[in-house]
Write a structure and sequence with these properties.
globular, single chain, 10 helices, 184 residues, Rossmann fold
Length: 184
Amino acid sequence: MAFIVVYDANVLYPNTLRDLLIRIAQQPHLVQAKWTEKILDEMISALRKNHPDILDDKCSRLRTLMIAAVRDCLVEGYEPLIEGLDVPDPDDRHVLAAAVKAGGQVIVTRNLKHFPKDKLASWGVKAVHPDDFVLNQLGIDPQVVRACIQQIVDSRTQRPVTIDDVLDELLRDGLVRSTTLLRD
């Protein structure tokens, strides 16, 4: 059975980080990534806010591609759990509810303060920063994670891109220790 993780909207927002997390999720022996339509709504709302020039069609296409890219990624039926959950930001209860409904062990998020250990422990869930998550994946199968980075390089069509370019983008996305390890 795959290790189940829920990706929060804030880790799906940055393009290169999202690309890496999805590619990791496509590896059947690493993790089973999950998210909800509401998480995707939050991600797309942030994209539209920060990049108002992005067309609706492009956002819709991104949503469709993300759902198609990861098998069985959507969590449904989690809504009745939301009211009974307690986290510091009530707007984040839906993320924990999705993790509980999916049987997830980890929420990958940049907002660790929104998911304190004491609030998650009774649900058997931990919140981890994306840097720690990627470090864990490197510990499990470094060749596969390195291959995911190479796939990102190979998929870029706008300009010549190197592994260092992608690692620089991931560093800007907060993957400090992971990028250091990947550069070695």
